[in-house]
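Hi support team,

I'm opening this ticket because the web form for multi-chain structure prediction keeps timing out on my end. I have pasted the exact lines I submitted so you can reproduce it. The total is 1230 residues across two entries, so I didn't expect it to be a heavy job. Is there a limit I'm missing, or should I split the entries? Thanks in advance, R.K.
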Amino acid sequence: MVGQIKRFLVGKPIATEHQHNERLSRITALAVFSSDALSSVAYASEAILSILILGGAAALGLSLPIAAGIAVLLVVVAFSYRQTIRAYPKGGGGYIVARENLGNIYGLIAAGALLIDYVLTVAVSISAGVAAITSLASTWGAPWVKDYAVEIGLVCILFVTLANLRGVKESGVIFAVPTYVFIASILALVSYGIGVDLLFGAQPVVQDLPEVPVSETIGIWLVLRAFAAGCTALTGIEAISDGVPAFKVPESKNAASTLTWMVTILVSMFLGITWLAHAHGAIPNELTHETVLSQIARTIFGNGPIYFVIQSATALILVLAANTAYADFPRLASFLSRDRFLPRQFSSRGDRLVFSNGILALGFFSAMLVVLFQANEIAMLPLYAIGVFISFTLSQSGMVRRHFRIKEEGWRRGAAINTMGAVLTAVVLVVLAVTKFTHGAWVVMVLIPMLVLLFNSINRHYGSVASQLSLEGADLPIPLRRHTSIVLVSGIHRGVLPALQYARSIAPDNVTAVYVNLDADQTAKLQQRWIDWGCDVPLVVLESPYRSLITPLFNYIQEVDSRYTDDVLTVVLPEFVPAHWWEHLLHNQTGILIKTALMFNKGVVVTSVPYHLGR
Amino acid sequence: MVGQIKRFLVGKPIATEHQHNERLSRITALAVFSSDALSSVAYASEAILSILILGGAAALGLSLPIAAGIAVLLVVVAFSYRQTIRAYPKGGGGYIVARENLGNIYGLIAAGALLIDYVLTVAVSISAGVAAITSLASTWGAPWVKDYAVEIGLVCILFVTLANLRGVKESGVIFAVPTYVFIASILALVSYGIGVDLLFGAQPVVQDLPEVPVSETIGIWLVLRAFAAGCTALTGIEAISDGVPAFKVPESKNAASTLTWMVTILVSMFLGITWLAHAHGAIPNELTHETVLSQIARTIFGNGPIYFVIQSATALILVLAANTAYADFPRLASFLSRDRFLPRQFSSRGDRLVFSNGILALGFFSAMLVVLFQANEIAMLPLYAIGVFISFTLSQSGMVRRHFRIKEEGWRRGAAINTMGAVLTAVVLVVLAVTKFTHGAWVVMVLIPMLVLLFNSINRHYGSVASQLSLEGADLPIPLRRHTSIVLVSGIHRGVLPALQYARSIAPDNVTAVYVNLDADQTAKLQQRWIDWGCDVPLVVLESPYRSLITPLFNYIQEVDSRYTDDVLTVVLPEFVPAHWWEHLLHNQTGILIKTALMFNKGVVVTSVPYHLGR
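Hello R.K., no limit was hit. The queue was backed up. Here is the completed structure from your submission:
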């Protein structure tokens, strides 16, 4: 039954031979790899404004220079990543580049940071997508929809998780249509909006605004905090460098030019939206939870169909952005698992050829975040971006080291670009860490070293197991000479017959039936019935003053086991197998308990001999 | 380690021989058995007022006649239960009386109703106890304490659960002191309060009151609803009849007179508090969540030490009331389990001689209720009392039937009393069901038949198992002639050596090693290494196009198993036993999966042969 439900939800298994690697054109690749980066314009401008508003209305104008600074940072990081793309045509994620050039520990730091960030990507993107939908609903007279934001977010995560367990083809229309509709509609909004504003002046956004008290003075601290908040616009920019092998030949060249296109589009949209927000006086609204993008869109285009298209395309591209994390997280986890830093389960492909365990883990943790933060993406942002910038810095530093090591043609220019990238992202990382520390970033900064410790201890364990399992010096197995068997009986009934039979066939001369005395009357009856029954297997009764089954059994087994040194002792447990799975709950779970307790006993094998109930 | 934590929390095991039955004097018995009934005065008057307030301030005066009606009901039910006490000196709970006199099905209905009610007793009492504490805190300038009501409630449930797992002695000071302090302080409050009020007039309660809109018209419906709400005062009145054997001889006589005393005290306190609430204008306050009892107490005695004593004694007796459900629920569950209507686990006594599983189940479900209702006892009341009244009606009807059957001396008088009790509680039950139906009582009325169905299907299952297990016609076990063994290998390493050795010792000529091909390269390497290694056990490679371990193995086992009819097939799984328990997570859980999948295969025995890792 469990199997049928799984088949229905996840689909039929796919054979290993059907694994394939499709190559993407630049047009499709832009759609596949850029949804995470481009979708961040849905919240990055709002994030800046949500900090500036703490300094009062006068501070809002600072959003323009701050956005310009972030745009410069975007261009520098993009140039820096073009180097990585050229150097790693087989894909150069932060973990691989940092581990290869800086050593294990830096690779693991990058990996831990990225895993956390992928979880946040899903939670933030889904929450922002839900905000786009609830803003649309509020504008269209259904403000109650926002009360179900958490539920809608969880359904979206469930949907994306199931889709990925089935296996999503990373190609074609599914990605291209919403991405290009989003790009087109946002660019239309920006160009039409700016044009109209310049010609006729900007109309202010009409909305009920809660009174937000001024809690911060305008100064360098406020600017840095707002800058840090806006840096979430950079998340996802590294996606193309991870996926170089998916491009058509020449891979590196196509990937590099796609990256340039992506950043150009991203910068235009981000600056345009920030400009429009300022011109129309759009600001984060804690009362209606309407997004800044929705405020701008409905002010410029009215509540009609164009507004609907913008909001739906925003919601869709945000779901796609979450979806990219579903490719990245399981892949990174499988790399870590392959290198023995995570449990093996993360590197085995499921029925549908996907890394099912990584997908499930990502779905679980991101759902927890959505519940914890009540689907409020702006509240999650202080945790976000730290991980990405750690990965940026380590990956660019690794590239610098690589240039100096390999000294390929034109390496000085490459090293200069990567040094600039590394230094700039390192500075921003410090800014992020300092300004966001008390707002939640400390959680991430505690989690990353804990993850690195976990990775290392898992690695040590696997290493220790491998050395212990080496066959060096081991003899070929020879059969044991003596077999002793103990059958644990709970009464005299058909269920013990197969167990006694099995025990006598593996240890013909050496079988004892054992019964634990929990009730003196019942025990006396059983002993008499055993004699009447005429079974020639001797029955041993163990006393148990504290009504425990395990302790007396344990002591008896040790006594029997110590009689001979060259034997093996098999403890046989009669086990009922009911006709229906739920009936298992109705039979004492002592079998499982006994097995668990005896597992750590060397030289003892525990065997359940089933008795199948017919109905 | 798990064992050590358990020892610390629950204490050392107690030997069976130490089971004892202490006899209680009437003074102690009143304390032990009456906390549930007496503590209901902490919320019953408030429950009445919380309904009447919906009809506006003019309706509040109706509380006095309604309370008088409930007092009459209390006296009738008490008289009726004196009959039960006389007829069942060994204890006559609703389940036993109804089952014996009306038949299985009525007994099960009473049992289901009571189990639900015991869970509610814990949730309601603990929540009301927390309300007493938070009211005290608010009066003493710490209103923030009430924001942690749920957490405090959960800690209390955890505490009571642990105390009961250790085993609470139902005797002595623990019960007597708080109960008598409570009785004394409430009676003092009532007599002093009424005296002062009559002499000098009553001071109104000073408090901030939220505006409660009038939503109901004053009429018969409102009166019935308020009456139904007040009927929660009757919960717990049946406790003495369950516990007759615990009294000193003559048991029945002592129990009956204790019941009379208890009802006298209960009626005085209940009527007195209702009168004072009306005189001082105390009403349920949704803003401060201060209890009506707290309002009265601080108005009469001021915020000083007497007020403190009343609030603490109230909180304590409510915790004791919850504690009585911890005796009743596990006992009833053990009766049901003994009669095969619940899983056997409920009738086995744990280390400390208590029915641990019943205690854990009660703690779990009541904690869920506290979270679900946010520790608001007034909101839970519509679900409460229905179960008790079902049990009252069935138990009294059973008594009527018994009188007519046995016709003991003076049976006509007894039958008349019980008939009156049965009719009256049946009428009240209908009133409760109708007035509370849409306020949550429907949940209980759906749950009870579901529980009865569950009891019956569990009973049918155990019956069917017993008949299938009968030894009638079964032969004595004879050893099997032929043994085949399959060893599932995951590679060539030390871990498979003990498994091969074991397999060869139970089936010397008939062992096959089996490997499932999940990766063609690895498989080829393994086959070569197997040949180089020189082990004479043949290696069979199974193809698995869908990367499943189970399906190919399953098919192969069926093929091998079908070769002979008089053999037994043992599938041997090499199992790593790591040095630390948490390291289990790092090894593939496929062994468990394979065991589960093969469990339903007749004629196949699955054995894990452990390989112990040293570190």
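A quick check on our side: Chain B touches chain A through 76 residues (CB under 8 Å). Let us know if the file doesn't open in your viewer.
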